[in-house]
Write a structure and sequence with these properties.
Length: 158
């Protein structure tokens, strides 16, 4: 018999980009762009990616780690306001085991010299999954990649 549990936490990350707000927003919204920066682990094998970025739309991303574990991300966009914000719910799975469910809000604001982005994720880790900070670390790595993408760093391999 499995032990059922929930462990709640909130992750808040604020980033400032030296890029116009529409460019930062579109990096999330346009599939060809998001695919270039969204991965947080180099060397993992892409298995599936689809993005329908609109209110009521969805996203799927499946990758295999070096040890063959399939990491699956499945999202539903609840509210999308162009160049202002979007809100989405998503779950994460390792192989066939759901490890977390989240509600995330991403807000954008134009500021002098670029764009301010505020990301808030309310996450519940399930059934004894011990995150040990890896969600925050992976999200930070993803946002580092987003910075390189929108600020036009040509040294990053796509």
């Amino acid at each position: 018999m499995s032990v059922r549990s929930t462990d709640h936490t909130t992750i808040t990350i604020e980033r400032h980009f030296k890029a116009p707000l529409p460019k930062v927003f579109n990096a999330w919204a346009i599939p060809e762009q998001k695919r270039q920066w969204f991965a947080c682990h180099e060397g993992w094998k892409p298995l599936e990616f689809q993005l329908d970025f609109r209110t009521g739309g969805s996203e799927r991303n499946r990758v295999a780690s070096a040890d063959g574990v399939v990491h699956a991300y499945q999202a539903r966009y609840i509210d999308v306001v162009q160049n202002e914000r979007f809100i989405y719910a998503f779950d994460m799975m390792l192989d066939d085991k759901r490890i977390s469910i989240s509600l995330a809000t991403v807000n954008f604001a134009q500021e002098l010299g670029g764009t301010k982005m505020t990301f808030v994720e309310q996450v519940v880790f399930l059934d004894g999954y011990s995150d040990n900070g890896s969600r925050l670390m992976g999200t930070e790595i993803g946002f580092d990649n987003l910075r390189l993408f929108v600020e036009g760093d040509d040294t990053r391999a796509n």
